[in-house]
Specification:
With about 325 residues, the protein is mainly α. Helices cover about 50% and strands about 10% of the residues.
């Protein structure tokens, strides 16, 4: 994460004192984190860079929800994706298959780095004793990449936009980030203000604004019967802005997390990563990655809004701005 954050700072150096598209920057940084974590290669690696570009094109064409989420269609029934979407999906799988095959060869010769891909490929199933075959490993990598970079990129982009809107908070985060002069895991754990800002961005702009769950047993909700198998849409977007739960829910206020209302709502009405058995397994990872990258960027740069430009959130696979988020990048 630290290496990816520093690489992001270096990439931005030639763009200082100019207008930049923030979503592109955060997508690049988050993808870099995932590839370094999975395969010990930076985003500049030929295959990593190509997978990143293909995923960007793929996610922009995806709706937030589709019919298959509500109706259990048989697997043989066509999903009617566009030709371009299907082509991108095939090419992404081919690229990931190449990375996976290269890692398998390294494992066989005993030269594989000790990273997440190696751990996944060498850890047997405790029940069957079998490991992932190539196709299964490609599925795992694809899920890690899509879920692990797209959501973080969305949250980081909205965090930076909110801090540009509220420069007093941005200055406080930048001051706190001076602790990264001597970066360590202990230092990162002390980025409390950056973490509260990131948490607040997740509240106002949850990367996954709606999710579908299936009732596993009969239940009753608000005096309505919910039969087993019913499809239920949960909306973090609405829950996080509920006026009967949150104090000033539409305000950007990172300080709320130290109030009684904020602490209560964090336990009972805050689900950017879902909750329960289906909670995102990368939640802890994201809550380290987000504040670290945020702090590292603001330690070196100031971000300023451009008069009259306000991003309009839209939902693809995650909440993104309809026309991007353009901010002015200034060297500190």
């Amino acid at each position: 994460m630290l290496a990816a954050a520093l690489a992001c700072v270096d990439r931005l150096q030639p763009q200082t004192n100019s207008i930049v598209e923030i979503e592109e920057i955060t997508s690049h940084a988050a993808a870099d984190v995932i590839f370094r974590t999975l395969f010990s290669v930076p985003i500049e690696h030929e295959v990593a860079a190509e997978v990143f570009e293909k995923f960007r094109a793929y996610q922009r064409e995806q709706p937030l929800l589709n019919l298959a989420a509500f109706i259990p269609l048989p697997r043989w029934l066509p999903r009617f994706h566009s030709r371009r979407t299907c082509r991108n999906a095939r090419e992404i799988r081919a690229l990931i298959t190449r990375l996976t095959a290269e890692r398998a060869a390294q494992i066989a010769t005993g030269n594989a780095p000790d990273d997440l891909a190696t751990k996944i490929m060498t850890t047997p199933d405790p029940e069957t004793g079998q490991g992932f075959d190539t196709a299964e490993m490609v599925d795992q990598v694809a899920i890690f990449f899509l879920a692990g970079h797209e959501t973080s990129a969305s949250a980081l982009a909205w965090s930076l936009y909110l801090l540009a809107l509220y420069p007093e908070w941005q200055d406080r985060v930048a001051e706190e980030a001076k602790a990264l002069d001597d970066p360590s895991f202990t230092t990162v754990s002390q980025l409390r203000l950056s973490r509260d800002v990131f948490r607040e961005a997740l509240r106002l702009y949850p990367p996954v604004p709606m999710m579908v769950r299936e009732a596993t047993c009969p239940e009753q909700f608000r005096n309505r019967d919910v039969p087993k198998g019913a499809q239920i849409v949960l909306s973090p977007w609405h829950l996080h802005r509920h006026e009967r739960l949150w104090d000033n829910p539409d305000d950007f206020d990172p300080a709320r997390w130290s109030t009684e209302n904020g602490k209560t709502c964090q336990r009972q009405a805050y689900i950017p990563f879902s909750a329960g058995p289906r909670v995102c397994t990368g939640a802890g990872f994201a809550m380290v990655e987000g504040p670290l990258i945020l702090s590292m960027l603001l330690r070196h740069y100031r971000l300023e809004t451009i008069g009259g430009e306000m991003p309009v959130p839209v939902a693809h696979l995650t909440v993104r701005s309809r026309d991007g988020i353009r901010l002015r990048l200034v060297q500190r």
